[in-house]
Amino acid sequence: MELYFQKFPIISYNNITIRNISERVSVLTTPKLAPMNYYPYELGNGLRPDQIARNYYSDPTLDWLIWVVNGIVDPYYGWYLYDEDFKNYIDQKYGDLDTASQSIAFWRTNWPSDVNEITSDYFDRLDGSFKKYYEPVWGAKTKILSYRRKQDDLMMNTNKISKYSITMNSANNFANGELLHFYFDDAQIGFAECITANSTEIIVRNHVGNTSAGTIRSRASKLVNAEIVSITTMVNNIPDIEGKYWEYVSWWVVETEKNEGKRFIDLLDVNQVMPIAEEIRKALQ
Question: How many Cβ atoms sit within 10 Å of the Cβ of residue 260?
């Protein structure tokens, strides 16, 4: 049994003998240079590290080895979160799934989802501002066969920032940082994020849909709403006509992609367990 914290040095703190768990080690340098010492493993079925250690190393107390090998510091949020735990994490951090889904982290070009190729004639007829999103598909003798989306991962922190002159229809103003919904009659036609607000003016970013007409309502309370008087564009990173080449990435997507990246871990070969345990012991002496 190779308990991790038994390897940490004992010190005296305020006249109390304790283990110094603030120590950190950087080991596994030799095994990391030998890929054959590792096995890729995909997490599933709600398995915990101690269960994997029991199944793979025949010792559940070797779960610490999985942490160290995969560079995991936080044993809860550093580990892959399964459905219910991930939902609870989103709720705690963002309030609810809808807020996380509509809160925009950044914008990126959407070429991975656009697999269609266009002909040379079609490319020639494109608006000049659209051509930068395409690259040629070459055939024999440098002949261009068609055009496809350029595989450039372009990113913007927001597509547009605008200032609105407004007339409030309620006693309360919009709040800084909240989500605003844009309505025409009773149909929502767009949304954006409020940066700053007062009773006569708001500045918003991350425009999605139609945000130039109708009534602005607070997502938190429809009773807080205003009419648009005028709009001034302050920043226009992505012109409206080029919007089809971009997509917004919500914090829900960011958190999901980050969590999915934790699904795949490395397991150290069983024959390397004792050498690594000894390496850690020596490093912490």
Answer: 11
Q: Does 31 score more than 80 pLDDT?
A: no
Q: What's the mean pLDDT in 77-86? A: 92
Task: Tell me 78's DSSP state.
Answer: T
Mean pLDDT, all residues of the chain: 87
Strand partners, 193: 179, 205
The helix/strand/coil state of 49 is: helix
Going 149 to 152 to 157 to 161, the CA torsion angle's sign is negative
All domains in the chain, ordered by first residue: 4-80+262-283 (no CATH), 111-152 (no CATH), 160-236 (2.40.30)
142-193 pLDDT, tens digit each: 899 999 999 999 999 999 999 999 999 999 999 999 999 999 988 999 999 9
Give the integer Cα–Cα distance in Å for 197 and 211: 16
What is the average pLDDT across 214-219? 94
Rg of the chain in Å (alpha carbons): 27
Mean pLDDT within 17-44? 64
Residue 77 reports pLDDT greater than 90: no
DSSP 194-255: EEEE-SSEEEEEEEEE--SSSEEEESS-TTSEEEEEEEEEEEESS-GGGGGGEEEEEHHHHH
pLDDT average, residue stretch 11-34: 57
Segment 214-217 long-range contacts (CB within 8 Å, at least 24 positions apart) = 214/182, 214/183, 214/184, 214/185, 214/189, 215/169, 215/182, 215/183, 215/184, 216/164, 216/166, 216/174, 216/180, 216/181, 216/182, 216/183, 217/180, 217/181, 217/182, 217/183
- 194: buried, middle or exposed (CB in 10 Å: 19+, 13-18, 0-12)? buried
The H or E element that residue 122 is part of is helix 120-125
